[in-house]
Amino acid sequence: TEVTEKLEEVVMIWTKQIRQVLVESEQIRREADDVGPSAELEHWKSRMSSFNSLLDEIKSSRVRKIISILQAARSKTLKHWKELDGSITIAANEAKDNVRYLYTLDKFFGPLANASPVMMEHIPSLMNTVCLIYCTSPYYNTSEHMTSLFLKITNQMINTCKTYLCEG
């Protein structure tokens, strides 16, 4: 019983820490007004890395042993643990999926940033790819994600035009 109580305390601490990570990941991002679309990819890569590290830790033998002991003891703390484990898995899958889809746009980011204002040749392919992402991605096809992406693409186009005007 004493061992079980100690392990439950450990799991409650982990639960609190994981909840904090999940809450922070859902907060609205503060970004500069002129940030380009590559920042969107970097955000999701960073998030994927964080959640994959967290998943690796949760699936480690040390954690699995503690969870097994608490399962054998029929601990009530495991209900919250299982919910959080599921939430972390969903968040990791979302980040991985979003990185995969955003990488399809990566080939447009360089030309968009370095082109002259007559960048129209890249726009149809870029929009087709964004449309493809919207139609096929199980996670990225929300208005929130699409708005953020279009805002960053527009920012990049504006920055490219400003740079062109200042050089000219």
From TrEMBL:
One of its GO terms (biological process) is microtubule-based movement. GO terms for molecular function: dynein intermediate chain binding; dynein light intermediate chain binding. It comes from the Eukaryota. InterPro entries: DHC (IPR026983), Dynein_heavy_tail (IPR013594). Residues 5-166 form the Dynein heavy chain tail domain. One of its GO terms (cellular component) is axonemal dynein complex. Pfam families: DHC_N1. This is DYH8 protein. It comes from Chaetorhynchus papuensis (pygmy drongo). The lineage of its organism: Eukaryota, Metazoa, Chordata, Craniata, Vertebrata. The gene is Dnah8_1.
